[in-house]
Design a protein that fits this description.
Structural class: alpha+beta
CATH topology of the largest domain: Heat Shock Protein 90
Number of domains: 4
Helix content: 40-55%
Number of strands: 12
Shape: elongated
Strand order of the largest sheet: 2-1-5-4-3
Amino acid sequence: MIAVWIAVAAALAAGFALGARSGSRRLEARLARARAAAEALAAGNLDVRVPIEAHDEASSLSRALNEISVRTKGRLAAAETERGLRDAVLESLPQGVALLAPSLSIRHANRRFWDLVGVEPPAEPHPHLALARQPVLEEIAAEAMRRGRTVVREAFLYAPGRAEHEVTVSPVENGTSPAWLLTIAGLSPEREMAYLRREFVANVSHELRTPLTSIRGYAETLLQGGLEDVENRGRFVETIRKQAMRLEALVEDLLELADLDRPDAEPDLKDWDLGAVVRETAERFEEMARRRGLELEMDVRPGLHALCDRKRIEVALGNLLDNAVKYTERGRVLVRLSREGDRLRVAVTDTGRGIGPEHIPRVFERFYRADPGRTRTLGGTGLGLAIVKHAVQLHGGEAGVESRPDEGSTFWFAVPVGGPPAKSRAGASPPPDGRRDSGSVEGAPPP
């Protein structure tokens, strides 16, 4: 009997030993799975889960890891949502906002910032502020960093027009690395309009004063005995006539610009053969070009139709041709019409002095002159290119210039073939043959 119990005890001991070894292997496998899950969590995989196989300490570890994964994933999702809301608020601001590093690299900027400086948001991270192509922003930021405090200045930005804004650069206390917040805010409409009115009145007054002073001076000379001065009186009267013509041209340009500026201004849209319109307008300048010893050439063919206001197109092209012929001393003036997708492009290329890059962003401003003395000598009012821009914008198009000093200039405008996108097309006359031309004009590159 004792031998039996001894045998049973031996069997039980052997079974416990085998069970312990098997349990140890299972525990090691479970701990290995928990360790792998922890490593996956550390690597950023928040979807990993450890299976729960029992109710022991190892299972408690697995449950803790699973809880950490769930909570961390939830917090990251909440943080991402919060970040999305902050970005949405930043993008909806009417101000341009950029966060700058002390090196003037842009850590973050909203879309409004890039719109105000006229540059597409760059693909590369942390671009330099110089990419905004507005040197005044770099000057204000450098001044704020040098002083170590907020700097607020009013500055003109060119993108592509000229507009005044309030620029603020302030230090940001973020507790880690120094940063500066740059904001660009538009001036209030009332303030901007008051400024524009003052500038306009000052410019008009200046333009009127010169010819009026000349007319008055020569008229007084004639009244004080100049009528008996047979040798010079004809010259005096001719000067009065020229200055009166200059005044007339200024008044006509002011009236034209005022008409284009009206809030209810709408083009008289009809389907015109723009090739014929361009050719007829250019032909009116042939005699003027011939007198100045210039060749007026045309790369224009009929059949390119557009829904447009003929009078406005003639005014725009007339101003470009008048400038090109006046300011070209020798060589030629080339008028070209071409089709670019759904737009027709009219370009006037000359072999004149060209325009410096510092003037390019501003040449379409009212009364802006790259060479004031020369412009006034030739009778320019300083409003021609502003009229071109407004006439073209009324059609939903755009105008521009490509020029280099001593290499001539190409002034151009482009209008949609189908007319302004938001304008009604009712009443537009069909083309003579009931079709629109879909061809294009190919030509040599401008000189």
